[in-house]
Amino acid sequence: MQHTIKLGIVGYGNLGKGVRKAIDQNPDMELVAVFTRRTPSELESGSAGVKFEHISAAERYKGIIDVMILCGGSATDLPEQTPQLASLFNTVDSFDTHAKIPEFFEAVDAVARKADTLSVISTGWDPGLFSLNRLLAEAILPQGTDYTFWGKGVSQGHSDAIRRVPGVKGGVQYTVPVQAVIDRIRAGETPALSTREKHLRECYVVAEEGADQDAIRETIVNMPNYFADYDTTVTFITEEQLQNEHKGMPHGGFVIRSGITGEGTKQIVEFGLKLESNPEFTASVLVACARAAVRLRGEGAVGAKTVFDLPLGYLSPKSPEQLRRELL
Amino acid sequence: MQHTIKLGIVGYGNLGKGVRKAIDQNPDMELVAVFTRRTPSELESGSAGVKFEHISAAERYKGIIDVMILCGGSATDLPEQTPQLASLFNTVDSFDTHAKIPEFFEAVDAVARKADTLSVISTGWDPGLFSLNRLLAEAILPQGTDYTFWGKGVSQGHSDAIRRVPGVKGGVQYTVPVQAVIDRIRAGETPALSTREKHLRECYVVAEEGADQDAIRETIVNMPNYFADYDTTVTFITEEQLQNEHKGMPHGGFVIRSGITGEGTKQIVEFGLKLESNPEFTASVLVACARAAVRLRGEGAVGAKTVFDLPLGYLSPKSPEQLRRELL
């Protein structure tokens, strides 16, 4: 019988709360403490049985916590926190600024190797499961074209952009994959498509009283970078509708590779997610990766790792024998 | 620059031919020879540039061939050939008798450990990619229900059963997933379903001249085990139609897990394949796994392995740096 995997959470926003819930679903895991930059006692209401600590107390948990799950943002939190905590603990994070992954990897790798720890970086669903599926399909079908579609889901950046428009009181933006394009690809076509040809943008906007709705609509649909190049719809709703119908954080998407084997034989591989909660699902991926981090570290591995480096059997609590019997 | 991976193929049916074509698509690989129990010279027509050897000559290639890709059947070939060849070479096979995988694993593992070789067993798409996706989705969503659908695709066993019916000259059977059931699951329902509730059986039959078509239909749809418990359709066609419209070997299917996180949040993970050629796709998976076998063996690993034991990055010819930059 293996010992329980002891976990810490750093950061207690939507993702951190999702990790707490995911740990509850895994009997081989135990939450030791949540670390925060806020005043720990402020977080206690509604989280009975969870121990909160200030982030400055983390070092005292060295040797107690097996893996720290880092739930900060990619813009400013993780570039600082992952290297810092990797000097003390094994870590898992969801760093998702694609263009900066190589330098992030190098920075974390150097710290972790020196500290004899292991850090699984940039996991979740994209980067993460989508990346795995892009790799898998490309390795099997070297001749082919692949497509990533996101949505239907909330884009935080685009929602923020809407809310900055004068006369807008609130709003949310959904990125929506174009079904007709997906159907063409599933039918075997391999069109060359930009991100904007694959996605629509649906905006739900609460206008301030007396605001000019036509002017708001024009400002949004013509906004450069965010909306101008996309098919964008703007629907005005009430504040109540925004609260009641748009409070979820759904997301998802598809990775499709359309390849050729032999003499023109078409082969299509598709992976898709339909998520009612993006942060809860991402959290569940982080928790499974924490299990893999413990296993790999137990074999002597150190440094930064990505999903590409993990034998997937290590994500499961089941033994290799059980996996072969039940799931192969 | 790594040296080219030198491969042998054992068995030259549809799968072996598919492996030859897949090797051609991978510039880091080279086919050294095809081994057969038949007279090698008989196989040469239509396969220019391929060297054929009798299976008894395999031993002479020890130290020359990096991985033998075993393309025999699971019923009688592989239980004998994999252990035999694992005593001399690294191997990859597609042993797919699910119930016998544990004992097959043990037998191959013992031989390979003794011989200091590595064998990736039971790979392809099911077992193989479908297994990986069952594991991945279950590890991430421990609370959930999963579903495997096969098809639309040819079932060899059921096609053989049709052809044994008196008055039948030829025929083919397609296993077809029930679209309405897939739609329910994609919409979030988690019904309890047996294999027969998830699949239809479509039979295309060529009757002998003067044969009683109604009697043939009755015999097929009432055949125990094969058809009696399924919704089965029988369509009579001409010999020309059988040749022209049913000569392909399409297959595919879906693995869907419908899970719950937090307080009843629905999360759906789906993996699907739509294959114009089952053997060519399976062959492409075997070839990518041969690359992983070489990498793992290069790290000192020996014994039997399954897809659960492979870091997926090892399937790709790209370096870890390149994978992180391009695919993560």
TrEMBL record, chains A, B:
Keywords: Amino-acid biosynthesis, Diaminopimelate biosynthesis, Lysine biosynthesis, NADP, Oxidoreductase. Residues 124-277 form the Meso-diaminopimelate D-dehydrogenase C-terminal domain. Pathway: Amino-acid biosynthesis; L-lysine biosynthesis via DAP pathway; DL-2,6-diaminopimelate from (S)-tetrahydrodipicolinate: step 1/1. It is an enzyme of class 1 (oxidoreductase). One of its GO terms (molecular function) is diaminopimelate dehydrogenase activity. It comes from the Bacteria. The keyword Amino-acid biosynthesis applies. Its EC number is 1.4.1.16. InterPro entries: Diaminopimelate_DH_Ddh (IPR010190), Meso-DAP_DH_C (IPR032094), NAD(P)-bd_dom_sf (IPR036291). It catalyses: meso-2,6-diaminopimelate + NADP(+) + H2O = (S)-2-amino-6-oxoheptanedioate + NH4(+) + NADPH + H(+). Belongs to the diaminopimelate dehydrogenase family. Homodimer. This is Meso-diaminopimelate D-dehydrogenase. It comes from Paenibacillus artemisiicola. The lineage of its organism: Bacteria, Bacillati, Bacillota, Bacilli, Bacillales.
